[in-house]
Amino acid sequence: MAMLTVTNPLIQAYILHSALLALKLIAISSMTGFTRLSRRVFANPEDVKKFRGVVKFDDPVIERTRRAQMNDLENIPAFWILGAFYVTTGPGLGWTTVLFRMFTVCRFIHTFVHVLPVIPQPSRAIAYGIPYLINWYMGLSSCIILY
Question: I want to staple 40 with a disulfide (CB 3.0 to 4.6 A). Which of 13, 53, 57, 94 is the partner?
Fold first, then answer.
């Protein structure tokens, strides 16, 4: 149990990257709201009354931001769970730090290339695929080692 303390560098790396990803989720949520406000395009009639806009569900700019946000909501919580399990298996600090850093950087890149469509594919696919594979690796490693 001594390994599960905040003085453990593995736990510190996990906490750091988890916090960065949580802040990213908050930021993309705010970006979606700001985009709605700046374009005066809303999903709820009461917002239209308050902010003088229109109800519209297919604004391409808002939908790109929303899809980036939804993609984060589908992938980052899995990292939190699988990363927490993974650090309990006692992996090496260097390799684990690389995995956490790659996951975090790629998720940030994924948002940028998703929201800014001027950056061509396969950049978004690569930025999605690397964290996806990292989640699978951590999950399967945790299952194999703990089984």
Answer: 53
Asked if the structure places residue 5 within a domain, the reply is: no
Q: 96: Cβ–Cβ under 8 A, 6 or more apart, which residues?
A: 10, 13, 86, 87
Residues ≥6 apart with Cβ < 8 Å to 147: none
Q: How many residues does the chain have?
A: 147
Q: Name beta bridge partners: 55.
A: 42
For 42-94, write each residue's pLDDT tens digit. 988 898 888 888 998 999 999 999 999 999 999 999 999 999 999 999 898 99
Q: Tell me, yes or no, whether 2 lies in a domain.
A: no
Mean pLDDT of 3-28: 94
Here the CATH number for the domain that contains residue 116 is: 1.20.120.550
Least Cα distance to 79 among 3, 4, 16 occurs for 16
Which pLDDT tens digit goes with each residue over 56-66?
899 999 999 99
Looking at the domain assignment, is residue 4 inside a domain?
no
